Amino acid sequence: MKEIYTEIEIQAPDHQVWKILTDFDNFPTWNPFIRRVSGEVREGSHLEVQIQPPGKNEITFKPKVLRVMPNRELRWLGHFIIPGLFDGEHIFLIQSLTINRTHFIQREIFRGILVPFFTRQLETNTCQGFAEMNRALKMRSEQSESTEKV
């Protein structure tokens, strides 16, 4: 098992962060890591997700949505070829700190027999991609929040 964990504080309310995180149609305009997502934000549905870790080629996979808790959590599980080879449970957590301050956590738990062969890439490129996405989500959420106040 291998876990990647990143977090960031965002100066925007939880509902604003959730709105941007689940607006898949606009991912290509702001998200440097998860370049495209299609499908429904609904437990049990399957998404099509295209990621591009820094310095790597795009990868497309079709995870199943495990949990949807509006303004709180989105979780999906993807597999490489067949379950048990290389599985990734991706978790987005949104925690309200105050009315206009949110703690955002992005993590992924990797399991499977191939995970040890990709540990270095996960610790570098994938982790960097998570951090870049977090910063972009922060920027977009804070810009959206300031625009709505005007």
UniProtKB/TrEMBL annotation:
Gene3D superfamilies (alphabetical): 3.30.530.20
Superkingdom, natural source: Bacteria
Pfam hit, one: Polyketide_cyc2
InterPro entries assigned to the protein according to its UniProt record, in alphabetical order: Polyketide_cyclase/dehydratase (IPR019587), START-like_dom_sf (IPR023393)
Protein name, as recorded: Polyketide cyclase/dehydrase
Species of the source: Fischerella thermalis JSC-11
